[in-house]
C-alpha cells in the first residue's frame, strides 16, 4: 500500500509483538531489511527481559536461579498478551531465538530525524518525568517505553518540532482509529490489535496517512 522500496526508510515505533499471531514473522521480515529500524516498545522490552532465561534448558540448577523478580516480569509480560509470542518463539530453534533477541537488543530507545526542515522525535511512549531543559539521554528506558504524554503539555515551543509516539491507542484518545495530531504530538498507534482498530503508517515527506 505504501509502495515501500529500497530508497525509503521505515521506523517502527515498537509493540510489534504480542496480542496476536504472526509477531515473529514480522520481526524476521524486518531483520532482512536494512532500511527498517525498530524502536523499543514496552512489549519488546518485556520480551528481552524474559526470553534469555526462558530459553535455557530446564534443569534443577536453572530452576533454582529463577527469582521472584523474574517471575513478576514474566507475569507482567503474559498479562500484556505475550502468550502467542512465547509460543512462536519456543517453536524456533535456539539459534533462531537468539538471533531475534540479538536483533531486538539493537533497537534504539528513540530516534531524531529531520524531514523537509522539520524535526521529529520518534519514541514509543513519550518522555516520562518530562522537563523542557532535560537532555534526552537523561530519560531512562521506563520513561521512554511506558510513560504516556499529557497531550495538553507540548514538549516543544517551536512550531517545526514534533514528537511521534505509539503505545497509546488513538481509540482511547480521540475515539477514532486515526492518527492523532495535537500540540505537536503525533500519536500513530491506531489499535491494530483491537477489533475496531487499524494499522497506520505516516509518510513524513508528504504527511500522507495510510491505514489497513
UniProtKB/TrEMBL annotation:
The Calcineurin-like phosphoesterase domain, residue ranges: 6-174
Tree of life domain: Bacteria
Alphabetized UniProt keyword annotations: Hydrolase
EC annotation from Swiss-Prot or TrEMBL: 3.1.3.11
Record keyword Hydrolase present: yes
Hydrolase listed as a keyword: yes
Top-tier EC class: hydrolase
Protein name as catalogued: Fructose-bisphosphatase class III
Taxonomic source organism: Massilicoli timonensis
